[in-house]
Amino acid sequence: MAFSPASLLTIQNLHAGVDNTPILQGIELSIGYGQVHAIMGPNGSGKSTLANLLARKNGYEVYQGTITYLAEDLLSFSPEECAWKGIFLGFQYPVSIPGVSNIQFLKSAVNATRVAQGKPPLDAIDFLNMIKEKTAKLDMPSELLYRSLNDGFSGGEKKRNEILQMTLLEPKLAILDETDSGLDIDALKAVATGVNNFRNENRSIILITHYQRLLDYIEPDFIHVMVNGKIVKSGGKELASTLEEKGYAWL
Amino acid sequence: MASSKELDQYLQREYEAGFVTDIESDSLEPGLNEDVIRTISAKKNEPPFMLEWRLQAFRHWQKLKEPHWAHIHYDPIQYQDIVYYSAPKTKSSVNSLDEIDPELLKTYAKLGIPLLEQERLHGIAIDAVFDSVSVATTFKEKLAQEGIIFCSFSEAVQNHPELIKQYLGTVVPYTDNFFACLNAAVFTDGSFCYIPKGVRCPMELSTYFRINAAATGQFERTLIIAAENSSVSYLEGCTAPRRDENQLHAAVVELIALDEAQIKYSTVQNWYPGDKDGKGGIYNFVTKRGLCRGKSSKISWTQVETGSAITWKYPSVILQGDNSIGEFYSVALTNHRQQADTGTKMIHLGSNTRSTILAKGIAAGYGSNSYRGLVQVSSKAHNTQNYTQCDSLLLGSHSSAHTFPTIEVKNNSAKIEHEATTGKISEEQLFYCRQRGINQEDAISMIVNGFCKEVLKELPMEFAVEAQKLLTVSLEGAIG
After folding, report:
1. pLDDT in tens, B428-437
2. Nearest to A109 among B437, B447, B450 (CB)
3. Nearest to residue B467, comparing CAs of B267, B249, B253, B234?
4. Less CB within 10 Å around the terminal CB: N or C of chain A?
């Protein structure tokens, strides 16, 4: 049997920032297989910094600490290596690329990832069958596949498209950064259903959110509260309602 | 940002068409005077009217000054140091492709233009111009069955002097500009095409220009005439070896569309662009103009310009016939130290004439990319329309894009629209692609091709694929 570390992701004493300005100040976090962790906290507490850092976005400096992902040093990965090794970041603000159709982008992404993982690329027909099935599950009109990527998409369409990409790429760790922001209740339900269908014992999820609302639809195993670049409180799902009542000030 | 540094390190790939063919050539000594022109004319066994026209052009040219209004910078061109005629020695007149020097066939095969296979495989007729002369024209007989004349310019002068006399210089007279005038004096070959009345040309016609010899200028001339109610789609491609010296290419293309005729002219220009520090490369000073002479005629230019150290080129349409249509679709890419000043002129003389301009400029490295356009509506042209869209995409922080549009309208019924945008490939776009597993190189290529999509779709299918690849290769080593 292949060596399998106790947890999928372990962050130890992580200090990081941008332009010599520290943002994360000693993060400790461990994500086990199949677990869903919610990270909550006020604006500016460093949640998105953590998400971007885990996807190895350029421009962040790590001053101290380690991030271990499947027994490897995550900080040595390039952004595309992160993707190939199964880390997915659902963007708070998905970017648009005019002239590149959504389906062309999705196919490039799926096949680039498959090839990097040593799998054969999907041909046009297999890919089309796969994407039809997945869009139907997300209640996404197929017309969206043929428009330019995220170009003129509504907020709800963009977020559904993020979830579609997640289900196509089948990551081991999905980090969803404020996936609930700007969604009406129907879109929120559709996104939550997509995430819940995606959940299984081999897939872990980090949900980053401001609001407890999302957690009514996606039930986390753990909730962490982040304030000023530190996790100040961790607990079970019941922590959400306490936060809803009392806000963050009491922490 | 750290990522710009990473972009800086973006892979370098060399210009793939930069090899030299080792072939004996018959070249004149460098320099330009009336004797050189007489020699060229004599070598080509031209009738007296051609020599006379060349000499008139040369005398006029001596009175002209090289124009410097374009947004480009280069060292002075030494016109007396240029070789004005160079031809592969083996060529006298070949009757079939079997007689062509195998070295030449190999050259074209290496460039992906296998003259022999092409005939069988692609159904594209090709005229191959090597340095100063046309070395092969494929499919001639098949086209002749339809009454189509497709041959080298030199052959046309021999076999169809009446057509040459009638049309040569009618769209671009030798008095037009400095470079066109030089071309008229010294041009050595090119392609000629005549589509008779009512004939739709059954295949793509194509000319492939190759500069091989050192210190040689290439001055070719293309003349296409589409008679009443005929149509043709034409494509030209160009490459040159990698050399440290700059080489001059000053071509002229004239298109003439009679009543209800249609000409579609596509260019994939990949002359050697010089190295990353701007050493060497082709100076591409080209005059291309189409005349919609007949009513309801149509001329459409599509160009993908990725090569040359300098590009100075404004494929234009004179909309003389009522209800005629002019189109210009362009992608110009400049990387490293390349400079392009390119665009179009749409001259509306007839009523109900319409024109469309869609220009996409991409500047990377220290590249400079300018769009220069003129839309002119004469007082007698009623109900004309023009739509212009110019978009620029910048990569890195040292590249530049400029737009110089001019609109001159003398008739109140004209409808003119102009839109322009300038954008950058953002870090966010690149990160988004990379986060989805698409590596940086492929991501840039995807974004650039998306940006050019509306233009690329105007190209014939095979060439659209070629052009996409070329854009990708040309961007490598791009971003600074």
Report:
1. 999 999 999 9
2. B437
3. B267
4. N
Contact B429 A97 (CB under 8 A): yes
- Angle, nearest 10°, between helix axes B440-456 and A102-116? 150
B317 assigned to some structural domain: yes
Return the pLDDT at B338.
Answer: 87
Q: Is B83 within a domain?
A: no
pLDDT per position as a tens digit, B135-178: 666 677 778 899 999 888 989 999 999 999 999 999 999 999 99
Show residues of chain B in contact with A59, CB under 8 Å.
1-3, 427
Burial class of residue B34 (count of CB atoms within 10 Å of its CB; 0-12, 13-18, 19+): middle
The CATH number given to whatever domain includes residue A127 is 3.40.50.300
User: Residue B431: which of A79, A99, A105 has the nearest Cβ?
Assistant: A79
Alpha-carbon distance A60 to nearest alpha carbon in chain B (angstroms): 9
CB within 8 Å: A99 and B452: yes
Residue A159 lies in a domain: yes
> From the CA of B367, how many Å to the nearest CA of chain A?
23
Write the residue in B3, B434, B453 that is nearest to A99 by C-beta. Answer: B453
pTM (two decimals): 0.82
Cβ neighbours, 10 Å, residue B17: 20
In a domain, A3, yes or no: no
A89 is a domain residue: yes
- Rounded distance between C-alpha atoms, residue A60 and residue A57, angstroms: 7
A105: distance to nearest CA of chain B, Å? 8
Q: Name chain A contacts of B1, Cβ cutoff 8 Å.
A: 58-59
Contact B115, B97 (CB under 8 A): yes
Full residue range of the structural domain in which residue A44 is found: 9-250
The residue of A48, A52, A56, A57 whose CB has the most chain B CBs within 10 angstroms, and thus the best one to mutate to test that interface, is: A57
User: Tens digits of per-residue pLDDT, B2-18?
Assistant: 334 444 444 334 566 66
CB contact under 8 Å between B438 and A55, yes or no, is no
Q: Would residue A4 count as lying in a domain?
A: no
- Interchain pair B432, A99: CB under 8 A: no
- The verdict on residue B327 lying in a domain is yes
Judge whether B448 lies within some domain. Answer: yes
Structure-block tokens of residue A92: 């708070």
Query: How many domains is chain B partitioned into structurally?
Result: 1
CA dist., res. B396 & res. A251, Å (int)? 45
* C-alpha closest to that of B130 among B183, B184, B88, B76: B88
Range of the domain at B425: 49-71+146-475
For residue B307, give both structure tokens: 């090569």
> Closest Cα of chain B to A83: distance in Å?
5
Q: Å from B237 to nearest chain A CA? A: 25
**Total tally of structural domains belonging to chain A:** 1
Q: pLDDT tens-digit profile of B392-406? A: 999 888 889 999 999
